[in-house]
TrEMBL record, chain A:
Lineage: superkingdom: Eukaryota
Keyword field: Mitochondrion, Ribonucleoprotein, Ribosomal protein, Transit peptide
Residue span(s) of domain Large ribosomal subunit protein mL46 N-terminal: 56-165
MF-aspect GO terms: structural constituent of ribosome
Protein name: Large ribosomal subunit protein mL46
Ranges where the record places region Disordered: 117-157
Primary residence: mitochondrion
Localization, UniProt: Mitochondrion
From TrEMBL, chain B:
Origin species: Phanerochaete carnosa (strain HHB-10118-sp) (White-rot fungus)
Keywords: Ribonucleoprotein, Ribosomal protein
Entry GO terms, CC: ribonucleoprotein complex; ribosome
Protein name, entry field: Large ribosomal subunit protein uL5 C-terminal domain-containing protein
Highest taxon, organism lineage: Eukaryota
Gene Ontology biological process terms from the UniProt entry: translation
Protein family membership: Belongs to the universal ribosomal protein uL5 family.
InterPro entries, A to Z: Ribosomal_uL5, Ribosomal_uL5_C, Ribosomal_uL5_dom_sf
Pfam families, sorted: Ribosomal_L5_C (PF00673)
Single GO term (MF): structural constituent of ribosome
Residue ranges annotated for the Large ribosomal subunit protein uL5 C-terminal domain, each copy included: 196-304
Length: 297, 307
């Protein structure tokens, strides 16, 4: 009963991003016994179909979405540069007489910036191409500092390569900002062997699949993370080749904040890895079952 | 093996290296030089051989977010599982054979009435038909324009600055830029037929995603007493025309205009602040389609609240 109550509270919290599912879920923060009881019949229907000896497990594909824009390829850069030049050649001139009072300070600034943009696109006749400035200040040439009185210096961009990238720290969430990263954990399997796999949980007798996912994410291992499970439906199924092993239903979730904590019992170690880094760590048949659920990039 | 170098030696004996290069360069120059001179337009400027069109000029961050994260999530969220052995739904309506000579050139009224599309169930979600934005339309009515058309100028310039679009810009013939909206009906004391009373602009492609970025990062956070866009009541119908047409609309008050960075730069130039309607038009249509579009928009961090 407790699990259901907490779960409903969680659903109502995540509603801001799941508007459509709101129709069937009560909205009040305090979930009453009555609402839980109202949900019970559907539970029984689902659970009655499951025979006693079936063991079902859920796996969680916990994703860290890209936090940086993708670096364009050489072809893309050339294409964008070419299109920018065409755009500049064809653009309608700005009607400065509407947008600025003639002789105003703003007009002066705008004209200087516009000249700089023009020069950047076409260059000046007889001048060597300027080196790209790291600060990206378009006014740099007129003035030594390029700043008007009271104007703040432009912000310095952070490096796209972080400390974690340099060290190759697979536990850090700052690594590979352009890529989708997935949480892989090291755990002990039935045979007592240490294997790398996605986090997973055994579904209880009186439990629905997505509840097991939420329970696992609230266990000591996931308590330090703020996560959001994308839907109540699994995104994929892994059928192990050896029959006594249980079926594994995979759910997609996103990490929003925090970090995983290995508890030393069910989870020994963890790593945030991109798709191709997962391949060598996991079993081959397991990989064939899950590879299509992961983003290539 | 032995023949090839012999040929090379023989050739280099006939034509020294420098002359070869000169011959190739001459041939290339000839190939590159246009036979005819380019046509000139009325201003005396050359008209290129091809129709030059400006395509994407930069990578769009918000569009990348849609393609890498939102698209997958929306597919999973809206997916309805259908067992493989389930029967196809029974077609309860009459259907015409369009090739039948009896019906071929007759008026074919939509089965179920002209609003049947609102009751049509959304198609099952596949990777191909995930909900996606097609266009954002901004619209404003300037009531003073009924007195004098010149009052529209401020709104036109504001929309031009916000959208960055002008008619057929960059050779894109479908880009309409800022358009004038005219009155449809004569309403005593309010509207005159065909009188210019407002402006609108359709934003598509990468500019559309940039507009969402501006809205979410510059406008919404700085709006006072803004909690989010109100949602309709939970009991509201899913088959009304608005709920089924896959369009989400809301309005911004006049004070929000100054929060767009493009306007903020030279606020003094505008005679007035203009509020605006924003319509997010998506590619989905059918029962409850609007909710799907809301789900999409909340993925772009546009907040929705229960009123």
């Amino acid at each position: 009963m407790d699990i259901v109550a907490v779960h409903l509270a969680q659903v109502s919290r995540s509603l801001a991003t799941a508007a459509e599912s709101s129709a069937s879920v009560p909205l009040s923060e305090g979930v009453t016994e009555a609402t839980v009881a109202a949900l019970r019949p559907s539970y029984k229907q689902v659970i009655k179909k499951r025979s006693d000896d079936t063991v079902v497990q859920t796996g969680i594909i916990l994703n860290r979405s890209p936090i940086l824009t993708r670096t364009p390829t050489r072809l893309e850069r050339a294409y964008y540069a070419y299109m920018q030049r065409i755009e500049r050649a064809l653009h309608n001139p700005v009607p400065t007489e509407f947008y600025f009072k003639s002789g105003s300070l703003l007009e002066g600034i705008f004209n200087r910036e516009e000249n700089a943009r023009e020069r950047k696109a076409w260059g000046r006749p007889g001048a060597k191409p300027r080196k790209a400035q790291s600060s990206g200040n378009a006014l740099g040439e007129e003035n030594e500092s390029g700043l008007l009185p009271g104007e703040e210096p432009p912000p310095q961009l952070m490096s796209r390569i972080t400390e974690a990238d340099r060290k190759g720290d697979v536990m850090s969430l700052d690594r590979k900002g352009e890529r989708n990263l997935y949480l892989l954990v090291q755990a002990r399997d039935e045979a007592g062997k240490d294997v790398w796999r996605f986090p997973q949980a055994v579904v209880g007798k009186e439990e629905l699949l997505h509840e097991a996912v939420h329970r696992e994410l609230r266990s000591p291992f996931g308590l330090g993370m703020d996560t959001w499970v994308v839907s109540r439906k699994p995104i994929g199924l892994y059928r192990p080749s050896v029959e006594p092993q249980p079926y594994l239903f995979f759910y997609k979730a996103h990490i929003l904040a925090g970090q995983a904590r290995p508890d030393g019992k069910s989870v020994l170690d963890f790593a945030w890895l991109s798709k191709e880094e997962i391949t060598p760590r996991v079993d081959k048949s397991y990989w064939n079952g899950v590879k299509d659920m992961l983003s290539d990039f | 093996m032995s023949a090839a170098p012999a040929v090379n030696v023989a050739r280099s004996a006939v034509k020294p290296d420098g002359r070869w290069r000169a011959a190739i360069a001459a041939r290339r120059t000839k190939a590159l030089t246009p036979r005819k001179l380019l046509k000139r337009d009325q201003n005396g400027l050359p008209v290129p051989h091809v129709h030059v069109i400006v395509r994407d000029t930069h990578q769009s961050r918000v569009a990348d977010h849609y393609n890498s994260t939102l698209r997958d999530d929306l597919m999973y969220m809206n997916y309805t599982h259908k067992p493989a052995d389930s029967k196809p739904p029974r077609n309860i309506r009459l259907s015409y054979d369009l090739e039948d000579p009896y019906v071929k050139h007759r008026y074919n009224p939509p089965i179920g009435g002209s609003f049947a599309w609102t009751r049509q169930a959304l198609p099952p979600v596949t990777y191909e038909n995930v909900v996606e934005l097609e266009c954002i339309q901004l619209h404003t009515m300037v009531k003073d324009a009924l007195q004098s058309k010149s009052h529209l100028l401020g709104a036109i310039m504001a929309f031009r600055a916000i959208s960055g679009l002008s008619t057929e810009q960059g050779g894109q013939r479908t880009t309409e830029g800022v358009q004038i909206v005219r009155g449809k009906k004569q309403v005593q004391g309010w509207m005159r037929r065909k009188a210019p009373v407002g402006v609108k602009v359709d934003i598509k492609g990468p500019q559309m995603y940039d507009f969402i970025g501006t809205l979410v990062h510059f406008v919404f956070p700085r709006m006072r007493e803004f909690n989010g866009i109100p949602l309709p009541r939970q009991s509201s119908s899913l088959i009304s025309a608005s709920a089924a047409s896959g369009v989400v609309s809301f309005g911004l008050p006049p004070m929000a205009m100054g929060l767009f960075p493009q306007i903020e730069y030279n606020m003094d130039a505008y005679p007035n602040n203009y509020g605006m309607h924003i319509h997010f038009i998506a590619n989905t249509r059918g029962e409850g389609a609007q909710n799907r579009v809301r789900t999409l928009l909340s993925g772009f961090q546009i907040p929705f609240v229960r009123a």
